[in-house]
């Protein structure tokens, strides 16, 4: 997957200007940087252009709804019960 000459702004603040990057197929890439430098903005841009690639995000800090169960957190992210069953089965929940 390749991004070419990406420019992203929020109001007058440019986060990326003429930014280009290529990710190798079937690879794992870490996006590292200080808080507020644009890591999540970059991931959102990649996801918005994703049509043929499988992309997953893993954030460093917890991203769960603390008052909900693990199952409900997964359901919230997936929004489909049949997908939830296959994810839980794959994780050994029903094995």
TrEMBL record:
Keywords assigned by UniProt, alphabetized: ATP-binding, Nucleotide-binding, Transport
Supply the Pfam families for this chain: ABC_tran
Name all ABC transporter domain ranges.
17-49
Transport: present as a keyword of the record? yes
Q: Name one GO molecular function term.
A: ATP binding
Q: Which InterPro entries match?
A: ABC_SmlMolc_Importer, ABC_transporter-like_ATP-bd, P-loop_NTPase
Give the matching PANTHER family: SPERMIDINE/PUTRESCINE IMPORT ATP-BINDING PROTEIN POTA, SPERMIDINE_PUTRESCINE IMPORT ATP-BINDING PROTEIN POTA
Name of protein? ATP-binding cassette domain-containing protein
State the organism named in the record.
Teretinema zuelzerae
**From which lineage does this chain's organism come?**
Bacteria, Pseudomonadati, Spirochaetota, Spirochaetia, Spirochaetales
């Amino acid at each position: 997957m390749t991004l070419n000459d990406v420019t992203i702004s929020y109001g007058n603040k440019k986060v990326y200007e003429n930014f280009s990057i290529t990710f190798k197929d079937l690879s794992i890439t870490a996006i590292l940087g200080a808080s507020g430098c644009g890591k999540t903005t970059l991931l959102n841009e990649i996801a918005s252009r994703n049509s043929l690639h499988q992309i997953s995000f893993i954030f460093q800090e917890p991203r769960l709804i603390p008052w909900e169960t693990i199952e409900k957190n997964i359901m919230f992210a997936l929004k489909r019960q049949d997908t939830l069953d296959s994810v839980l089965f794959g994780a050994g929940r029903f094995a």
